[in-house]
Specification:
By secondary structure, the protein is an alpha+beta fold. The protein has 3 helices and 7 strands, in the order βαββαββββα. It starts with a strand and ends in a 5-residue tail after the last helix. The model has no long low-confidence stretch (mean pLDDT about 90).
């Protein structure tokens, strides 16, 4: 079985600020507590296509094993490795991120897609964020008998982490806004 959910959030900040916040959210030490599930983020590759106005980036993201604590005990691993692929299209003002786990795949598959675009009602001042997450516990794994319950617990944990991520993004946007006005927070 696959659990999927979608969320949409409007940031009352321009696209340029929100996408800048997205790049900086993991690097800011004040965000470590809110994003405690993120252990490390490393840039693996970055390519700029000036003619197309696109930036392509691949990052390695190391996180605590997703879901409730007992999953870590069952799979015997505390951490999970993921790959995040990002495309920023400056011409169309769109930023798309796709993240998936590359470890623990015999037990669980998680895929998250996030897209930032100017909000259609106020494109110069607001940004809409659309997030889709898909979680699948492998039916042939040792988790098969509990797959549905585990998937639901994983969804709940991902939704909690998404809310924390939105709080961090809002804080980063306010920081960037103040910075652009020469005010220190």
């Amino acid at each position: 079985m696959v659990r999927a959910y979608a969320q949409e959030h409007t940031y009352k900040h321009p696209w340029e600020r929100v996408t800048s916040a997205s790049w900086r959210k993991f690097a800011d030490p004040e965000n470590k507590r809110a994003l405690s599930h993120i252990l490390e983020v490393d840039t693996l590759n970055r390519k700029l296509d000036p003619e197309a106005g696109k930036l392509y980036t691949t990052r390695a993201v190391t996180i605590h094993t997703p879901g409730p604590w007992f999953i870590r005990k069952i799979v015997g691993q505390e951490i999970c490795h993921c790959v995040e692929s990002t495309v920023v299209d400056a011409k169309s003002r769109s930023m798309q991120l796709a993240t998936r786990n590359i470890s623990l795949q015999k037990f669980i598959e998680v895929e998250e897609k996030i897209r930032y675009d100017p909000h259609p009602d106020n494109p110069n001042e607001w940004t809409v964020c659309k997030q889709e997450t898909r979680i699948r516990i492998k039916p042939l794994s040792v988790l098969a008998s509990m797959a549905e319950k585990i998937e639901q617990k994983c969804v709940e944990k991902f939704q909690q982490n998404s809310a924390k991520g939105r709080e961090v993004m809002e804080r980063m946007c306010k920081y960037l806004e103040a910075e652009s006005k020469g005010i220190s927070l």
